[in-house]
Amino acid sequence: MSARFDCTACGGPLILRAEGVSESLACPHCGAVLDARDPRHQVLAKYRAKLGEPPLIPIGARGTVRGDLLEVVGMQRRAVRYSGVIYSWDEYLLWNPYKGYRWMVESNGHWLLMKTLETKPTEGSGG
After folding, report:
1. Is residue 124 situated within a structural domain?
2. Which of 8, 66, 114, 122 sits most deeply, having the most CB atoms within 10 A of its CB?
């Protein structure tokens, strides 16, 4: 389920995907982070930096991955510095109301699909 409204920081049109389970929403127009649980969508934070390159998979895109229809409901760009070299990657949050969340990670053209564990792993449970 999704809801449409205007950003309370800049007035840009927004779509809240995964309504009822999302906690925050970042405006792609101005970078403000809004409270998705508050009906007034109050601004939680503002970013002054430019938003950078658009994601390879746009927010709202839908597709089938391993037999499950999933929708991109979030994205974050991450990086780490190791031995003076910066390594970066993009993480896409995928959602299906019946299957839950999945993460799709892209780094230098390589893709990973991850699922959040429901329970804590135990020693010897890997395979």
Report:
1. no
2. 8
CA distance 32 to 42: 10
Q: Average pLDDT, whole number, for the chain?
A: 85
What's residue 106's pLDDT? 96
Contact 25, 14 (CB under 8 A): yes
pTM confidence score: 0.66
Structural domain harbouring 3: 1-52
Residue 127 lies in a domain: no
In the block, tokens 């405006």 appear at: 27
CATH of the domain at 112: 2.30.30
Burial class (CB in 10 A: 0-12, 13-18, 19+), 25: buried
**Residues 104-120 pLDDT 10s:** 999 999 999 988 788 88
